[in-house]
Each structure stands twice: as structure tokens, then as C-alpha cells.
Specification:
Keywords: Membrane, Methyltransferase, S-adenosyl-L-methionine, Transferase, Transmembrane, Transmembrane helix
Helix content: 40-55%
Strand content: 5-15%
InterPro entries: FAM173A/B, SAM-dependent_MTases_sf
Shape: elongated
Family: Belongs to the ANT/ATPSC lysine N-methyltransferase family.
Number of helices: 7
Largest sheet: 7 strands, mixed
Order of helices and strands: HHHEHEHEEHEEEH
Bound molecules: S-adenosylmethionine
Number of strands: 7
Oligomer: single chain
GO molecular function: protein-lysine N-methyltransferase activity
């Protein structure tokens, strides 16, 4: 056996003995950690929420659309079901004070605080572990929601009974079917609707019904 053959055999043997290089180990570990994280997000929520709403983050365009409908407004803003905290963070940057998110999932709350820290806003925005259906909204004049259609009827009642007249509610992707929006922005999945609570009360639109915005609204799941 010459030297070249011996080298080839040694390489082949080593290759067979250690199939996992550092790259594969890193990828494998990353995948396992991701699956554990995603699983715990789902479990965390399943244990606590009576209505199942998955975590689907707003896209950058959707957040921009929401903020565009709130332009010129100020004061307190609450994001109901704040996910990883991105809407609250953007609202704070746009000048809303205080900017608060309600979220049940503890992992998402951790993530929100990390994002706030990364953005230099840690301690300036608040993420509260509380059921959004139990949050006190009586002194809140700006509300954002991106939730599932199954949550909308429950929310309509709560918002109408608690919010002050001057409040504005911005709903993303799933409109409040019984309410007439004052403004609409964006298209398709990134469409958002703004509702003036005084107008909704005046019109007596307290329950879900016919959709007043005719174009392109689907209330199917995410
Ligand atoms: C579609 S995500 C929207 C996240 C974020 N608002 C955004 O726009 O990126 C809905 C969020 O609502 C949360 N959620 C569902 N039910 C809730 C409840 N009863 N109280 C608080 N948060 C809830 C979910 O955990 C999820 O993170």
C-alpha cells in the first residue's frame, strides 16, 4: 500500500467515524432549540387562554398601516394580544405614552422585553401578563388589535362598554363586522380599519352584523 492509498483510507475511516461536523451539530442544536421554543409558545397559550389565538406577528407594512391611521393622535395606547411587542414598541416611537401590551404567553413577554431592551426602550414600554378580556380599558384612547375572528364579538362588547367616547380602535386583518370604520388603510392581508368609538356608539352598532366595508374582506383564519 503506497502513501496516497493509506491517506485515502484514513480519511474515509475518519469520515465514517465522525459524520457530524461542527456545522451539522450547530444546525441540529438550533433546530431542536427552535422546535422546543415553538412548542412551548403553543403550550403556554393553550394552558391559559379560553379563546385560541395563535401568535402571528404583524408585518412591517401592517404596523405602518396601523400607525398611519393613528397619526395625529396621542396619549395612552394599548395593544391587545401584543405578541412579541412590536406594535407597542412602534407606538412608543411614534409618541404614544404610556404604550402597553397585554399578552398571556410568558415566552412572548420575555421576547418583548428583549426587543424593548435592544431598541433602547426597556422600562419605557410595558408588557403585562394579563388576559386582554380582563384588562381595564376605561382610560385608554388608542387601542390596536390583531386577533382571530372568533375573538371579535367578545371584544366588540368589551370595547363599547369600557372605552371613552374619544377612543379610536385600529383592527388589523380582521375587521369588526358590525361597526362602520372611519378610515381604512392597506390591501389584502395588511389591511387595517380604524373605528371612532363615539361614531360607533351614535350609530348604535353594538353587535356584529353585516360588513359595511364591501371590498376584499375575508374573515377566514390567519
Ligand atoms: C395574531 S398575534 C398578534 C401579535 C401582535 N399584536 C402583532 O400585531 O404583531 C395575537 C396575540 O394575542 C395573544 N393572545 C391571545 N389571546 C389572548 C388573551 N386572552 N389575552 C392576552 N393575549 C392573548 C396571543 O398569544 C398572540 O401573541
Amino acid at each position: 500500500m503506497d502513501l496516497d492509498d493509506a491517506e485515502e483510507q484514513a480519511t474515509a475511516l475518519l469520515g465514517r467515524g465522525t459524520p457530524w461536523g461542527p456545522f451539522q451539530i450547530a444546525c441540529g442544536t438550533g433546530l431542536v432549540l427552535y422546535l422546543a421554543w415553538a412548542g412551548s409558545l403553543a403550550l403556554g397559550l393553550r394552558k391559559m387562554s379560553p379563546v385560541q389565538v395563535p401568535f402571528v406577528p404583524s408585518s412591517a407594512v401592517q404596523v405602518r398601516n396601523m400607525m398611519s391611521l393613528l397619526e395625529g393622535r396621542f396619549g395612552k395606547l394599548v395593544d391587545l394580544g401584543s405578541g412579541d411587542g412590536r406594535v407597542v414598541l412602534e407606538a412608543y416611537k411614534q409618541g404614544f405614552r404610556p404604550a402597553i401590551g397585554y399578552e398571556l404567553n410568558p415566552w412572548l413577554l420575555q421576547l418583548s422585553n428583549c426587543r424593548a431592551w435592544w431598541a433602547g426602550c426597556y422600562g419605557k414600554v410595558s408588557y403585562l401578563r394579563e388576559d386582554l378580556l380582563k384588562a381595564d380599558l376605561s382610560n385608554c384612547n388608542n387601542v390596536t388589535v390583531f386577533l382571530a375572528p372568533s375573538m371579535v364579538p367578545l371584544l366588540e362588547k368589551k370595547l363599547l362598554s369600557e372605552l371613552p367616547d374619544e377612543a379610536c380602535v385600529v383592527a388589523a386583518r380582521f375587521p369588526f363586522l358590525g361597526w362602520t370604520p372611519t378610515r381604512v388603510a392597506g390591501d389584502n392581508l395588511e389591511r387595517v380599519w380604524a373605528y371612532n368609538i363615539r361614531d360607533v356608539r351614535r350609530a348604535g352598532q353594538s353587535t356584529s352584523g353585516k360588513n359595511p366595508v364591501k371590498e376584499g374582506v375575508t374573515s377566514s383564519a390567519f
